[in-house]
């Protein structure tokens, strides 16, 4: 396995000199293992594909990026009907949350880490303990009291790691001088969706003739607009559909962040997409990471998921925000991650993830740019940037703490009881992904019904808890309500996910 980012050994002051560094860091990492969870079964096929990515454990790796309903519309569309309104009041009177507003790693350091073994085992950061406590405050730039982490490294290796840290701190200082942080953007299913043919065919084999004709007409109309969203690449036998709101997102995000593109696609694909999104070269300025850039061989197998890291990204992890549709490809940087709903426009992408029902193309419907995923994410990163630079000491500020704080606001004030959402006889319901997602985003979850309960989350009517909630005027919602709130960083309107009596 490729050694982890050398910055990780330098980042935490949560371990005290002479203490158990592995244990404390394990708890920190494990607390995030509870983050962004909520896969309720719609991505079982993807689960099987991704099993190789993270070592198996008693806790299922988190992923709240499943498609929310079997209906024709995606989550942003489901919620938009009552976007500006607050949830219908009940006796508890809980207000709905509003939207929250050449850089490759040093080769010498990589060689040092390869020789010295896997840092995951040295620091214990890969451990995913089930009983982890809440994340501890972090200071990514702390250097004192970490000498014990260097046990086993010789002087040359230590010096190489220290030089890498110094280089990154200097990069970060330059960013801070212009009030910028780093934003790493996943490409496929986050910013856009592409449908391509096999390299052995010249036709668009992933798009049938009927939809190909639809796309051709749309592409012709789209050419007349100042900002295009649909592109055909004959030389790559590919259609690419940009996510609605992308141009506004990139323009505003680039003023606050140094933007990086990160794709599991090959270098050629990454280059073409970068030119599409940034024709003048001003937004990314060559900061594009693709498959093979991490030093792992490109085996041509795009179906096998691989992990991502921040090795080729500017600065320290305390100043890096990541946007991706999957948490599993970032096993070492979950605290930096904003998970977004997968953008699935083409039918072949729905099949890829094992999702039933038609795609956005098939129903001729798309996200709305003004209140869709990218608009919500823009509000989150703007809030992170604002809070970061409002900190008294930028050296002590950390985007991970800010992001965790923002998440806690989403479902604050909600007290949730689950009814037949978990398997019958579940001994540890608090370890279920949905329970953990709700708590990460500020809710209090309990097994007991009482007057303080505000929501009963269920899959159907008829249970005692559901009947009680209906009789006393509490919210009764599908599990998608929790996940929708987590993905869009605002409390979803309960009426959009209400389980209604016939």
Automatic annotation (TrEMBL):
One Pfam entry name: NIF
Documented EC number(s): 3.1.3.16
Main location: nucleus
Record's catalysed reaction(s): O-phospho-L-seryl-[protein] + H2O = L-seryl-[protein] + phosphate; O-phospho-L-threonyl-[protein] + H2O = L-threonyl-[protein] + phosphate
Cell compartments where the protein resides: Nucleus
Enzyme class, UniProt record, top EC level: hydrolase
SMART domains: BRCT, CPDc
Ranges of residues in domain BRCT: 406-499
Keywords linked to the UniProt accession: Hydrolase, Nucleus
Domain annotation FCP1 homology: ranges: 176-363
CDD domains, sorted: BRCT_CTDP1, HAD_FCP1-like
Bias (Polar residues): 11-37
Physiological role: This promotes the activity of RNA polymerase II.
NCBIfam families recorded: FCP1_euk
Name under which the protein is recorded: RNA polymerase II C-terminal domain phosphatase-like
């Amino acid at each position: 396995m490729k050694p982890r980012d050398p910055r990780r050994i330098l980042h935490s002051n949560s371990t005290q000199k002479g203490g158990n560094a592995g244990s404390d860091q394990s708890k920190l990492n494990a607390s995030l293992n509870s983050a962004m969870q909520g896969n309720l079964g719609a991505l079982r096929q993807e689960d099987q594909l991704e099993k190789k990515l993270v070592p198996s454990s008693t806790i299922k790796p988190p992923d709240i990026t499943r498609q929310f309903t079997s209906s024709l519309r995606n989550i942003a569309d489901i919620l938009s009907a009552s976007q500006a309104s607050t949830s219908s009041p009940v006796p508890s009177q809980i207000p709905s949350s509003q939207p929250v507003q050449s850089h490759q790693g040093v080769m010498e350091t990589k060689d040092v880490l390869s020789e010295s073994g896997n840092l995951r085992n040295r620091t214990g950061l890969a451990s995913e303990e089930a009983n982890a406590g809440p994340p501890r405050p972090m200071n990514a730039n702390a250097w004192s009291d970490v000498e014990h982490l260097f046990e086993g490294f010789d002087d040359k290796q230590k010096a190489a790691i220290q030089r890498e840290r110094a280089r990154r701190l200097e990069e970060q200082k330059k960013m801070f001088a212009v009030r910028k942080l780093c934003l790493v953007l996943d490409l496929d299913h986050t910013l856009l969706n592409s449908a391509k043919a096999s390299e052995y065919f010249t036709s668009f084999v992933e798009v049938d003739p009927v939809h190909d004709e639809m796309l051709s007409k749309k592409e012709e109309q789209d050419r007349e607009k100042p900002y295009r969203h649909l592109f055909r690449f004959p030389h790559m036998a590919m259609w690419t559909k940009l996510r609605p709101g992308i141009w506004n997102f990139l323009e505003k995000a680039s003023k606050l962040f140094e933007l990086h593109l990160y794709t599991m696609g090959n270098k050629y694909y990454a280059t073409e997409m970068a030119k599409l999104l940034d024709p003048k070269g001003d937004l990314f300025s060559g900061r594009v990471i693709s498959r093979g850039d991490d030093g792992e061989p490109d085996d041509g197998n795009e179906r096998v998921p691989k992990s991502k890291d921040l090795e080729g990204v500017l600065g320290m992890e305390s100043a890096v925000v990541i946007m991706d549709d999957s948490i599993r490809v970032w096993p070492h940087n979950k605290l930096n991650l904003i998970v977004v709903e997968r953008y699935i426009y083409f039918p072949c992408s729905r099949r890829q993830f094992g999702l039933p029902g038609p795609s956005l193309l098939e129903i001729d419907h798309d996200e709305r740019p003004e209140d869709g995923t990218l608009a919500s994410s823009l509000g989150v990163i703007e809030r992170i940037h604002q809070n970061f630079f409002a900190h008294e000491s930028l050296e002590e500020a950390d985007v991970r703490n800010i992001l965790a704080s923002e998440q806690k606001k989403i479902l604050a004030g909600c007290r949730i009881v689950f009814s037949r959402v978990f398997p019958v006889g579940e001994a540890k319901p608090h370890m279920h992904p949905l329970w953990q997602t709700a708590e990460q985003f500020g809710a209090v979850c309990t097994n007991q019904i009482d007057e303080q309960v505000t929501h009963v989350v269920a899959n159907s009517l008829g249970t005692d808890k559901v009947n009680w909630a209906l009789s006393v005027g509490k919210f009764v919602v599908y599990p998608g309500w929790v996940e929708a709130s987590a993905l869009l960083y605002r409390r979803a309107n309960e009426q959009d996910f209400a389980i209604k009596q016939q």
